[in-house]
Structure formats: C-alpha cells, structure tokens
Amino acid sequence: MNEFLFHYHRVHPTTWAYLSSLFTIAVYFKFSRAWSIRNLDILVLIMLAPGLLLVEYGASSSTAAVEQLGYLWLFATGGLFLIRLLLDPLMVRRPLLEPNMSVGGLTFVGISLLLFLMANVLTNTFTDDDLTGSRMAAQLRTRQDVQVENNSLATHGPGYPPLFVLPQLITQKIYGDGSDEQPDPLQDSLEGPDMVHIATTRTMAILSHLAIVIGMVVIGYRHFDNIKTGVATATLYLLLPYTAQYTARVDHVLPAALLTWAIVTYRRPLAAGMFMGLAIGVVYYPAFLLPLWIGFYWQRGLLRFLVGVFVTIALLVGMLALTATDLGMFLDQIRQMFGFRVPLMRNLQGFWQFDPSFAVYRLPVLAAFVALSAGMAIWPAQKNLGTLIACSAAVMLATQFWHAHGGGLFMAWYLPLLIMTIFRPNLEDRFALAVLGEGWFPGRRHGHRHVEQAA
C-alpha cells in the first residue's frame, strides 16, 4: 500500500488489537454508567482478540500448545456470549446508551477503516500455502486427481463447491507482514486460473464487507429508527481485530452479508427467504436457523419465506447440474453442498485436532446444538425482531463449538448479529402479525413504526 501512501507500513495485528481495543473503549464504553450490560458486552467483545492472535501465532510458528490455548480462549469467550444471547429476550429494559462520538465522527472513522481494509485486500501478497486449498478443490471438482482425496468434505466441510475453489487468505498475519517485506516472486508466476481465483476472492470479499456495512446502517435507520445506532454498529464491526485479520476470507464474510440482509428484508418474507436460501447454499450451517425463522413467520408470512428459501436452493442446485460433467460429479457436489456424511471424527482441524481421543465429545456437543436449534421453533413463544436477531446470532455462534474445520475462527457468521443485539432498542412490537401484510407484497404498517428509542 506504500504505492499510494508515502512510506506506509501495515499495522502489526497485535498492535492493532491494542489500538482498536482502546479506541473501542473510548467510543462505546459508557463511563457515566460503568456497571451496565452494554459495558460488559464491549469488554467481552474485546476479549476475542487475544484468542484470535494466539491461534494465528501458534499456527504460524507450529506451536501446538499456543494454538490450543487460543482455541480454548475463543471457546470460553464464545460461551459467555452464547449465554448472553440466550438471555437477551429476557432483557426488556434497554436504556438508550449512545456512543461517545457524533454521527459525523463515526461515519468518518467507518469510511476510513473500510478504505484501509479494502486496500489491504487489493494489495495483499499471496503464498503457495494460500493457493494450496483452491488448487486441490479445483482438482477435486474436475476429478483430475481423485486419489488425493475422495471427498473434499474432509478438508473444507459442507458448502457450495465453487466457493472452495477460492483462496483462503488471512489479510494480516503474525509472521510475514513486516515493514521490510520484499516483493514475492510468486506474484509474477501465477497461472491464469490462480489469477482468476485471486481476483474473484478480492472482489467477493470487498463486496461482502460493503454489504454488511450498508446492511447494518440500513437496519439502524429503518428497523431501530436510529441512524446513529446503525453507523455505530457498522463502525464497531470494521474496528474489530478479527475484521482486519480475516478481511479476505470469503467463506467467513459472504454468509455474514447474506444473513445481515435477511434481517434487513425481514418485512418481505420472500426476499428474506431468498437471502436465507443463499446463505444455506453457500455454507450449509445457516440451515439450523430455519426452525427459528419458521417460528417467527408462523402466524404470517411462512409460505412466502419457505418459497424464497427452497426456490433459491433449487437454483443453486441447478447451477451445479449445468457445470457438472457427469452424474457422479453432480452427486459429489450435492453431497458437498448439504454435508451428507457421518460426523467427522478423524483429521479434525481447530479445537478438536489436538487430542484424537477427545474428539468423541464432539458428538454430545453436536446433539446439544441440534436440540438448541430445534427448540428455537417454540422458544421464545412470542418472537419479535429483537429475538430474531439475538437468537440467530446464538445459533451461528453455537456452530463454532462443533465445527470440524477451525470452529471459533468463523466469527463473521455471528459478529454483525451480535453487535446489533448489543445496540438494539426494545423491539417487542416488531412481530410478524404487526409488520407483515397478508399478501405477497406486504406493506409497512404505520401504526407500529415508532418504538422506544433505546440501545
């Protein structure tokens, strides 16, 4: 990036964790009400950064003990947030606690952060390790070397097969981001397919982050009736160390963008169902949100929502059928997309990789998660927009505890929803019967437009 800014050097991830944490406290911590749930949420949110840095440092230096400590830290912090999110529907009193900065200041900071993060994506250098996964996925999709691995579920997990052809990049690394970094000769020797994958990764990452930021602002303006809250949530998302470190991971950020826009369009069940269908098709795990969303739309809008979900999934399956060269390849891709296999117990990644004998405990964790997801269909009994956001974040956070491929690191799946839960007002009157029309093109009901302004 020093081609654009004279003598610019990237901020080291650890340094950015310190700086962003201090800035987060300065802007969002309410010093006049030190003992508040909001302040506790902000402090726990900051606690995610040490675990993230420990994981990346341990993986880069091949220090298993440090990496395992990082995953334990992330799981402990995630457990605190999971309890917080499940208790959120019980928190009726939500006093207005606005950030310590004006809308103009927050907007300036947010735009500046967005520009720097996107510039890091565009100027990021690539290594052979970054491209290994995409090259293997391309071989598996075209069946060039089925002896390498019979099923890419073992290394990528369930999801849309074309997504795994993209490089999985960490924008800022503990190692390899020094100020004396030399040009990488690999950049000039990349083959055509690799260049296409890299360009696609950069484009999808940038557009996905833009979608998240715009979606959070729109939610604040339209559904929270407070533009300052929308700008504050988007700026906080961009400020977090995780966002800076994993900016270019499309498998992280794309599902988050789709889930954010499902919330944006919740008044339009058909559109919300289409975004949910896309999210399920991309990474499969949002399928566990269906009981919650079906419970929300049960009294009105259920048919429109389900039509949106299943029509979108059918279109994604049709695209696979058009690109498959034979029936066997198509069936393999369907299996990849929907995760049709017995839960993996060997060759795990992330938290479950360090002790093979400990992997058996992943099964009861998975069973508890399925029970939690199914229970969302009936609890809370009266679902409003607030519970929809909080419980969606809880389900996506809970997937981290049994995820076989780096569970705990996929924070983007729940961070935008979590941040909106922290800042949301009281939304008890935003339930399906109140805000949805009876037809396929529902209009907004003006009698329920104004809610108590709170944060």
The SSE order reads HHHHHHHHHHHHHHHHHHH
Overall pLDDT level: 87
Structure classification: mainly alpha
* Low-pLDDT residue intervals, each spanning 5 or more residues: 145-150, 177-181, 442-455
Integer count of domains: 1
Separation, N- and C-terminal Cα atoms: 37 Å
Strand segment count: 0
Question: Helix count, per DSSP?
Answer: 19
| Cα radius of gyration in angstroms | 22 Å
* Helical residues, percent: 55-70%
Q: Given the C-alpha coordinates, what overall shape results?
A: globular
Main sheet attributes: strand count, strand direction, barrel closure: none
* Strand proportion: under 5%
Task: Give an account of the 3D structure.
There is one protein chain. With 455 residues, the protein is an all-alpha fold. It has one domain (13-448). Helix content is 58%, strand content 0%. It has 19 helices and no strands. Helix 4 packs antiparallel against helix 17. The protein starts with 12 loop residues before the first helix and ends in a 20-residue tail after the last helix.
Summarize this structure as a short list of keywords or feature phrases.
globular; 0% strand; mainly alpha; 19 helices; 455 residues; single chain; disordered C terminus
What's the helix and strand layout?
Elements: H1 13-28, H2 37-46, H3 48-60, H4 64-87, H5 103-123, H6 128-142, H7 153-156, H8 192-223, H9 227-239, H10 241-245, H11 250-264, H12 269-283, H13 290-296, H14 302-323, H15 327-338, H16 362-375, H17 385-398, H18 415-423, H19 432-435
